[in-house]
Request: fold
Amino acid sequence: MSAFEGAGTDVLQELLAAMSPDERETLDVMERVRSRILRTPDRDDETAETFRKLYADLVTRLDPARPLGAGNRSETRALVLVGRTGAGKSSMISRIVSDHPAFPGFGVPGFGCRAVSVQTPSPCNPKALGLEILRVLGFPMAAERPVPAVWGRVRDRLEFLGKVVLHLDEIHNVLETANKRELTQIRTLLKAFLISPNWPVVLVLSGLPEVVPFFEGLNEPEEDGRANADTKGEVRRRAVFVNLRSLRSRHDPSMIAAAVADMAGVAGMGVPANIDVKLAPRLIHAALYELGTTMQIAHDAIGLALDAKPRATVLGIEHFKLAYRIRTGCSDAANPFVVANWRKIDCTLVMRASEDAKPVAPRKKGRR
Reply:
């Protein structure tokens, strides 16, 4: 553990010590509530199975008659996990990688996990992305260094530290300001991780659905008329795309109702009868039909119920009404937990679940 990490831990302990016993008790309950995970076969199982197959690439020999090592390793592939804002992409990756026995301590600074997660900077270009990866790897580099030197150091650092999985979260940030040439350069740099003969690395890329064309556009010709060496077929061969679907109003309310009841039970509360009919559909609609946001609003509602004086014994729609009002600042007329005809409310106008809700800015014409 570095000196900075140790100081950070001390600060957190001081913050905890400053809380009252009641505040600590509520915090403990909410930690247990948030630890409850809603796993679904078409999300968790598919993503975990895909990651398991990509992990196998890391230890696959090209020539079974020779020992596994540099020069006798298979190329790797990229897992591209896409979903709308609030779908739960980041937490899904954290859970899938952490649950794999080869990657204990994923996301814990100083643990030495073989997988590393990096937040794609915004705005982003090839140099900014490389510098951020180096910073997370504990090797900050001066911004004046050229792009080839930065990315050469990234590859060296990954191998030196024994990192075999690189997760780039919010990869859609590369689309905000990078021009066409920079996008091509980023794709080429990322592909180099997959085809390295000495130290191939599995890429896990999570972001909004807009990133899919980013990986499919490599067959466009260069500006001087030469054909790009990468083709759409090559990209699809090296990348596996998994889409986190949105919730469905007809099929998923019972699943969401069961999850809400389970979390309320952890907090020592009951739930009203028929919440799969009276509450869950409103919650799904309020969360823009995304599972991650649905769970966040439920967490907020449980927290408010815990803070009520006296503490609530039943998690009711009034707690969701207040949670949504606090989250969005909307009036009761725009609150789907208040109005009778809640299906007609356009919740996209009043609610943004997270920072990656920002629309991807179109690139200015003329930048080449």
Summary: Residues 248-351 form one domain. Residues 218-227, 353-368 have pLDDT under 50 and may be disordered. The first helix runs from residue 3 to 17.
